[in-house]
Each structure stands twice: as C-alpha cells, then as structure tokens.
Amino acid sequence: MKLSIVMTTYNGMEYIKDQLDSIANQKRKADEVLIYDDGSNDGTIEFIEYYINNNGLNNTWKLIVNEENKGWRRNFVEGIWSSIGDLVFPCDQDDIWHENKLEIVGNIMTENPQIQVLTTNVTNLYDNGDRKPSDNQDGKIVKVSWKKHIFRVDAPGCVYCIRRGLVNKSMNYYRVEYAHDDYFWKLGLFADGLYNFNKDLIDYRRHDDSTFSVETRKNRNVNARIRWIDMALDYCDDLTDYVNNDDTIVEKDKKVSVIRRNRKYLNLRKKFYETGNPLLIFQMLRYRDCYLKSRQLLGDIYIKYISK
C-alpha cells in the first residue's frame, strides 16, 4: 500500500524545518511527498529545495511552486488530487509528526478496509513551547456517526488519512470554497467510513494569527454569516447528489432526510439575517438540533441586532 503526503506551504520558514524533519524521520517512509508552495517570498522555497537535495530525497519528494496564488483551500485539494498513493495524508507546514504516525495509521487502514477517512488526536503545541496532550489516549478506533451533526468537524485536516477511492470520488462534488478538512470529513461521514484513532500522533501548533483563526474572527458579522450559509446550502446540494449517486452508500433515504432538514434550518437562518424578522426566531427554535452549539441561536440574534 503506497502512502502519499501532500503538504502546502506559504511563507513558512519559521517552523518548516521541524515539520520536514518529522516527515523524513518517519519509521514507515512515505512513498511520495508532494509539497505545493503558494508563492512564498520568505525563503521557504529555497530552503525546501536545499532540504530535498541535501538529504537525497529527490526520488520521492517533489516541490511544486504554483504559478499563481491559489489560496490554501484550492492548494490543498488540488494537491490531494494529484497524489498517487493508496492513502493520502494532508500535511501543514508547521506541525511536528510523531515518528510512528505513518506506520500506525497505515496499519490501521490496512486492517480496516471500511475506513475511508481516519483522523487522530493531537498534542497542542503553543507558541511559548508548552505542550498539552489530548485527554483521550486509549488507542481505540471510534466510528463517527452521521446522525450527530453534519456540519460539525472535530479534527484539523493535518491529521487526516484519506483512502484513494474517496479521493477519486471527491472530484465529482467539490466547489472551490470548500476546505479539504470540512469536505473530506463530510464525504467520509455519509459513506459511514469516518473514524478517529484515540491517540496523539502529531504536535499541532496553535497560532492566534493563523489563517483559519483570522477568518473565523472576520466571520462574526451578518454578511459573512450569509456567505457561510450559502456555502452550507451548496453542501446540502452536493451531499444529496453524493448520497443518491454512490451505490456503496446505505440508508440513503434517512441521510437525504437529514440533509433536507438542515437545508430548512439554513434557509430560515438566511432569511432571519436578511430580514431581521423576530418571528423567525420561534421557527428557528424548532431546529435547535441543527445548530453546532446550543448557544449559536443566541449568537445569530446578537450578530443581527447588536453587533456591528
């Protein structure tokens, strides 16, 4: 079984060596390491080239510098599509992989062909050097149920392992606004093939100024929420097509019904943000099970009426 690593980089000189070292030092070596740089100007490109040449990695490692800045979403997904491995591991530029990550995950995927997407726990690594392991280290492989919440994603994309078959299917339903972690989580979820391994296999850097953190803060306004809802509605369309068209997916009617209910909730939220009609709040209460968190409805009210 061939293993591919797909890393994306952009001005990552501060931490890139630690990540490259952790990949090169894996007990089970990757058969392919693809590094897609999105136009770095801080020396990242030159350092990666030096690292590959200096360590004799030219046969399996490849640096690709994008001709245009694609943005991290498109860069990751197109990189994943270009890989050839039976298992594909997305990889951030600033984490540190534990030396047995590929070995452990590769063995789990070999022994459990029903798993389409496998995630793992992480040890949080903070800018001051502090490390905080996750609370659950029991080593169990736990299935994630599609009945819980279709828009909740519980793992960062850098801990994913994606089976080739799902990578191939993903080309049929992708839109450029979808993030790879969000997208492959949902595909694995509705295929009944999403699992988590309860053990930390990477040190995951936490930055207040990360791209994701900055985007999250910017999304706390009406227009941004409407854009998110529109994207979620697109997901409803694409997931419905995915469930209906994939012959390997079971309980199609039940899954489509869940998607349909989420679509109704999303349309109510969008109408509330557009009109501010307080009567819609009572209708939205009927869909509390669709909210990511119980207090999210209060967040909608705050953003619409109070926040500027």
From TrEMBL:
Residues 4-150 form the Glycosyltransferase 2-like domain. Pfam families: Glycos_transf_2 (PF00535). Keywords: Transferase. One of its GO terms (molecular function) is hexosyltransferase activity. It comes from the Bacteria. The keyword Transferase applies. The keyword Transferase applies. InterPro entries: Glyco_trans_2-like (IPR001173), Nucleotide-diphossugar_trans (IPR029044). This is Alpha-L-Rha alpha-1,3-L-rhamnosyltransferase. It comes from Ligilactobacillus salivarius.
